[in-house]
Design a protein that fits this description.
This protein starts with a helix and ends in a 6-residue tail after the last strand. The protein is about 50% helix and about 15% strand. Among the domains are: about 130 residues, Cupredoxins -  blue copper proteins (Immunoglobulin-like, Sandwich); about 90 residues. Strand 6 and strand 7 form a beta hairpin. With about 400 residues, the chain is an alpha+beta fold. Strands 8-5-1-2-3-11 form a 6-stranded mixed beta sheet, with helices on one face. A 5-stranded mixed beta sheet has the order 4-10-9-6-7. The chain is extended.
């Protein structure tokens, strides 16, 4: 470390001495510091052109050498259209980049200083203002319209044969819930989540259990608070004003919770005939398996903080927000086996990642995604590697 500091100090001292020598040389030649000769201007102009050549040439070289580090071809139906939109953006960005930099350095060389030449005063031109206002506006409008069209297609109504899958995000793992033979996911409610029902799946048994357990605890708490306040009024116990205020606040709070639970009970009793749709829901915590050329409607939920379900190879991403459901659809078009052949990599796997920094183990929140070639392959895997979601609620 000492050697580094010595080198830095010596470099600063050397630079200072060079600047002093330059100032002395200018005095000897009887030349002011602000005087710039044609030779200086020509020298700077030539170096600006050389910089332009190396700058743009280096950009082209790096793109040619490392451009294949991008993601492989899209493995979903809409992914090809997204890649096309990205390529359109790249073409526009590179065209503007090369054009503006060529004009910048080219004009700097062409109009370099020269004795006898005066700068032309050019304060304003309405035609140029219109040109560089309208052209970018039109280009951006086209890009936005094309992007909205694709987005509406992804998040729009799925086809009738689309399979429904729920992805449930929590720190720091994913849980997959398949909709079963009826292609319907059972109701889920965060108020039903407990140790035996981590997804909050709504069944008659899980609702009764949650309501009974919570109601009993709440009623006992309310009764204890009521007895304590009554004892203070009777003079049997003495509490401070602050303690009485806190107890009354707790009573009001627990009374509101009791009302919400009773409302939830009435709500599910009214929809009790539909609670059976959860009977065939199945869950997987290790892998997400899909079938090639089968459209899927994904439903997303989160337990704790905001997560983001990101399928890079399928060009799909959606936020998972606590307290609400989000969705998108896509159809995988390349199986895992086919992509391994295309990539010449037997260890390749699609992956589901979390694309929001959701905590200390965010980087570990991922799940392997396998695209099976046939429904039979999927069924064989599901029979051995998934379990009934209702089993976790009993």
């Amino acid at each position: 470390m000492l050697i580094v500091w010595i080198v830095i100090i010596l470099a600063i001292v050397t630079l200072a001495q060079i600047m002093r020598i330059s100032a002395i040389a200018m005095k000897i030649r009887n030349r002011r510091e602000e005087d710039i000769s044609d030779a200086d201007n020509n020298f700077n102009g030539i170096f600006l052109l050389l910089f332009l050549i190396f700058f743009l040439g280096g950009t082209i070289y790096l793109w040619a050498k490392y451009g294949n580090g991008m993601l492989p071809e899209a493995a979903s139906e809409h992914g090809a259209e997204l890649d096309w939109l990205f390529n359109i953006n790249w073409i526009i960005v590179f065209a503007v980049f090369f054009l503006t930099n060529s004009l910048l350095f080219g004009f700097a060389y062409k109009y370099r200083g020269k004795k006898g030449r005066k700068a032309y005063y050019f304060p304003h031109d309405n035609r140029l203002e219109m040109l560089w206002t309208i052209v970018p506006a039109v280009v951006l409008a086209v890009i936005i319209i094309l992007g909205l069209r694709t987005w509406n297609s992804i998040t729009g109504k799925p086809s009738e044969d689309a399979k429904v899958i729920e992805l449930y995000g929590e720190q720091f793992k994913w849980t997959v819930r398949y909709s079963g033979e009826d292609n319907k996911l059972g109701f889920a409610d965060y108020k039903l989540i407990n140790g035996s029902n981590p997804l909050g799946v709504a069944t008659a048994a899980s609702i009764d259990s949650a309501i009974n357990n919570r109601t009993d605890g709440i009623l006992k708490t309310i009764e204890d608070l009521r007895i304590a306040i009554a004892a203070d009024s009777a003079g049997n116990d003495i509490y401070s004003v602050e303690e009485l205020y806190e107890m009354r606040s707790k009573m009001e709070k627990y009374s509101r919770i009791k009302e919400r639970i009773e409302k939830m009970q009435r709500q599910y009793e009214a929809a009790n005939s539909d609670l059976a749709v959860a009977d065939d829901d199945r869950i997987s915590k290790l892998e997400l398996h899909l079938v090639k050329d089968q459209e899927y409607q994904f439903i997303f939920r989160a337990k704790d903080v905001m997560h983001s379900a990101y399928f890079p190879h399928f060009r799909a991403q959606m936020n998972c927000v606590p307290g609400m459901r989000t969705k998108f659809k896509f159809k995988p078009t390349i199986s895992t086996k086919e992509m391994r052949v295309k990539r010449s990599n037997e260890d390749f796997n699609y992956v589901l990642l979390c694309n929001k920094i959701c905590g200390v183990s965010h980087s570990n929140m991922k799940m392997i995604v396998v695209v099976d070639e046939t429904q039979e392959e999927f069924d064989a895997w599901a029979a051995e590697n998934t379990e009934l979601a209702i089993a976790t609620t009993n």
